[in-house]
Structures are given as C-alpha cells and as structure tokens.
Write a structure and sequence with these properties.
24 strands; 6-stranded mixed beta sheet; disordered N terminus; Nucleotidyltransferase, domain 5; 7-stranded mixed beta sheet; alpha/beta; 18 helices
Length: 515
Amino acid sequence: MSAVPSDAARVDPLFVGLDVGTQSVKLVAYDPAARRVAATHGHALELIAHDDGSREQRAEWWIDAIRACFARLEPGQRARVAAIGVSGQQHGFVPVDAAGRVLAPAKLWCDTSTQLECDEIMAAAGGTARSIALAGNPILAGYTASKLPWTRKHRPEAYARLDAILLPHDYVNSWLTGRRWMEHGDASGTGWLDVRTRQWSQELLAATDADRDLSALLPPLVAADASFPISAVTAEELDLPRDVIVSAGGGDNMMAAIGTGNVEPGVLSMSLGTSGTLFAYADRPVVDAGGGWAAFCDSTGGWLPLVCTMNCTVATEAVAKLFGFSAREGDEVMAESKPGAGGLTLLPFFNGERTPDLPQARAEWHGIDMENFSRGNAYRAAMEGATFALRYGYGLLQAAGMRFGAIRLTGGGSNSAAWRQMVADVFELPVDVPEQTEGAAFGAVLQALWAHDHAGGGNAGIAGLAREHVRCEPSLSARPDPAAVAAYREPYRRFLDHLEAARRHYANRPGAGAA
C-alpha cells in the first residue's frame, strides 16, 4: 500500500533528486521549507570496460540502485515525497524495443569505441563545419549519435528491434512514469538537436542512418518545467504517495548548473567528477564555429556553453590505486609535494579525451627521473593534469570573450581542500563551494520544486528558486595564493607543450578526431 502520513499534523513535503552517474546513483531528499537536506543516500555502480574503448553499463543496474536508495529512506520521509527530478549521465544510449525491454548494455558518455562512426556521420553530413552549421556541434566520440551506427554494425539484432532511443535519464523517467520524453538540454548532447532552433536536425539524422527514419524513434521534446505523474506500479514498489510527480529532468551537467545556481549570466561552474566540466548560463545560443566547446541547451529554457574533459577524478583515483592508498587520503599524500610535482607531468587521458578532441589518446607520464617519482608527486601530477586540462578549456571560453569573476565548484573533487586551492591558483580566480556538494542531484531537486510549483498553478522562476536555496559554504572557499599562482605557470606551460606533442602524434592515426 502506498505510504501516507502517520498523523494529522501538517508535514512539509520533500523533493527528491536522483543523480544517475557513472560511478554511483545518488539520492538527495530536500525540505525546502526548512532549507535543509533531510537525507542523502548512494549506491555504487559497476562499469563494463573493453580494450577498444567501450564503456558500458546495464540499465537495470541503475534501477536496482534507485530501489536501494529509496529503501534507505525512512517510511515517514517516503510519505512526504511530492516530486522527483532525475539527473543522468549525458550521451548514453539505451536501446529499447516496443515493449520497453532493454536490448543491449547502454553505451556511455566515456565510450570512445565509436570514433569511426563519428567520422562517417560527419562525412555524410558534409564535414565537421557543416555538422556545426546544422546543429551547433560536431559529432564527437561519446555523443549518442555515433552509437547508433556502431550498434547497427556490431549488434544488428538489437538495432533491427529498436523501437526507441533513450538517454540514461530518459530511461529512468520512463521507469518512474511509464512515459517517454526528452528535454532540450540532454537532447542537445545527442549531436542531432539544432541548439539554435531546439529542433531535430533531419539532415544529421539522415547522415546517421539514411535507410531509417530515426526521428520516429525519438521521444517527444518537452518544456523544461514539464512534469508527469509517477506510475501507480512504481509508487507502490517504492512506497511513495501516488500523487508524486516527476519533472522533465536533464543531463548531469545541466542539473549541476541548476544545483550551483548557474541559471543566470555571470556564473562559471566547474564539476570535478569522473569527467571534468566547465559551464555557464547563456540566454542565447553560444556556438563555436571551430567546435572548441559544446554548444548545449540547458534544462531551464536557456543555453549552456560547456567544456568537457573525460578524465578528472578518474586520474587521481587511478594514481592513488597504483600507489596503494585511497583518494580520500590524497590531500595528506599531496602535502609531500609542491606545485609542479618535481617536474612530473601527466596527460590524464585514461579514457581518451574530448577537449581537445583526442579520442584515441591515452595517458602519458613525462619528466620521470630517479628522484621525482614519489607517490606525492605522482598524485599531485594527476590532480594538476586534470586541472590543467580544464584550464586549457577555459582558455577557449576566454578567447570567445567570456569573462567570469569566480568559480562555483561541485562534484566529488570539490571535497578536497587541496584541489579547491589548486583550482583557485591555476585559474587565478576565487573558488566557492555550494553547501550541497552533490550539485547534479540538488539541481534535480530544484527542477522538481520548480515543476511542482508550476503544476500547481504557480509561476516561480528557476533563477529565484536557485538564489533562495543555493548557498555557498564560506569555510570551503579558496582564494588565489600569489606565490602558488606564479609557481603553477611554468608547469602549465609544460603541460601545454606535451599536449601539443600528443595532438600531433594522434592527429593522423586511424579513427582520430578533429583535434
């Protein structure tokens, strides 16, 4: 039986944000009346990795993790849930048949096995520049578009039975509600959505498969403040009230933008997660003719110019494992080293790279000698490499005339005081950290709150809700240290030199992207 309040006393509703990430599913239950998080739960996920660059997960793992997170909520908390928002890892491809059954493992954002298919799509569309003209973005490794021809070649039976193209958060929404839809933010990460018009590019869909109408497989696009009722079956299973609604949801970066208050001009957000991202709100499409950054829509009705690197905490965790300690001990280990890591440089391309577009690249150590290859220097070099890669992307935004006065930091890396300070020193900008460090899950909370208000006839603005509920924690702020700022300039120049050498090395290899 669905949960109901245990007494007649008025209880304030809770709003739940689910973040379906690469490493885990996280649930945040928020009480907006008290402005406090009532509960936070997480459940780890596995990853299927192959030598060809494939990175996949089974969609049922996400649902099992969501069930586990809800089961850890107290019965009284479940009874208070009014709305749910879902944040999902972008670009993944969940193939489903007419009955809603998943036909194959979901290929993920960090899957680089489809670079050949990227090149084939763009060639069919008339080249990289033409692809950008059609949709605002090139078709990059990891984007959903290239996963369709890959599936046609390697999983022909699944492709033949394909009835719907779903992104990870779309699939979770369909499980919650029994309905299929897409919203513009995550849809723009497929590579098919013209971000200027917010319509599917029929030319790029045809370039992906000239023999099949892929637009018939895409769910309808909905407004950012849309909502849908939870299905009775799912409400029963999760022990939730039957009047819970589910908001439109969005990609993890779009939700992290909401969760860090990045829903109006002037804010730069940085997420230090499995991938690293930089993103900012825009009230108009911001397209780079050279494809230097992703020209995405956001999940509030605006746009989200975004720089993505595919290797962030991946790098620090890999090095910590190599030297036999936990990344949670990283700050202590790094105290053994100084800026520049004794001359060590790491290009942290464990999963290939997106910015710059080097899908075939692999991680590279440079500058190792008999004295400097210590665990402290190695761990610092991993953190520096991930940070320098984002700094390179920031330079692209600066070259386009974008200016910012501070950074709002989110993601798992923001829990590290050493990393917060490094970002402040390398970017030469003050760093602030919202109280809710799970930015994507909290953004899903706020979108659910917004949708619930509109479903009830209200007219709350998402920017006003963000200003009301997104608060920074002063004790976690970092300000540039002039000595460290100067000390990082030469290591960053050295990183750029090695990066340029890597670009030349991989430029002419089969399947190389347009670096």
